[in-house]
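Quick one:
INPUT:
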């Protein structure tokens, strides 16, 4: 399965309903600190809109809800891996993406035969407080050599202007978060991203 080169990440089904119809083909729902029934509602809504627009939906963290909803893909951070039932995830035929920051985490992730590896933050990010400093483009090239054919996603502080550098360094996909959601006209920003990455 080939992943689209542009991978926006949104914190609600509202964003997905608003922006996926513009032509997004790969999207993550990253919803945090909500009650399980609220998460399930957002997952169900996101799944419907993505199915309608032939967009691959990736659910962050909520692996049991993703299984229950019949989703195809989940993304797990390193902390999420501690609690996730990988056997159940694989039994449900869910594809799996995993976040990495250093070689120990990469080794742990690759042992699970993931469907993609994410490396970040490539640049400083305002999305969340992180113990990891910016990784830089050179580390993308290192990761590219270490993971072989596994798709590599660059995340953290990414913008359209920075995307080409990430692709040149070895990333297959570039993820964007605040570059879209904090933009004055998110729709125009998505269109610009699509034009730059297709």
């Amino acid at each position: 399965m080939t992943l689209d080169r542009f991978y926006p990440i949104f914190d609600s089904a509202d964003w997905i309903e608003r922006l996926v119809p513009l032509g997004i083909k790969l999207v993550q729902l990253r919803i945090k600190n909500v009650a399980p029934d609220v998460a399930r509602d957002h997952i169900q809504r996101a799944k419907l809109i993505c199915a309608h627009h032939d967009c691959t939906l990736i659910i962050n963290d909520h692996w049991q809800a993703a299984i229950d909803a019949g989703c195809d893909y989940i993304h797990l951070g390193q902390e999420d891996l501690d609690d996730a039932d990988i056997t159940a995830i694989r039994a449900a035929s869910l594809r799996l993406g995993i976040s990495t920051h250093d070689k120990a985490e990469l080794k742990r992730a690759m042992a699970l035969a993931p469907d993609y590896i994410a490396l970040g933050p490539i640049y400083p990010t305002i999305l969340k407080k992180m113990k990891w400093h910016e990784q830089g483009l050179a580390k993308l090239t290192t990761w590219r050599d270490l993971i072989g054919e596994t798709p590599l996603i660059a995340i953290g502080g990414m913008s359209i202007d920075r995307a080409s550098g990430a692709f040149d360094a070895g990333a297959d996909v570039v993820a964007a978060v605040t570059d879209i959601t904090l933009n004055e006209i998110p729709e125009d920003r998505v269109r610009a991203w699509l034009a730059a990455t297709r």
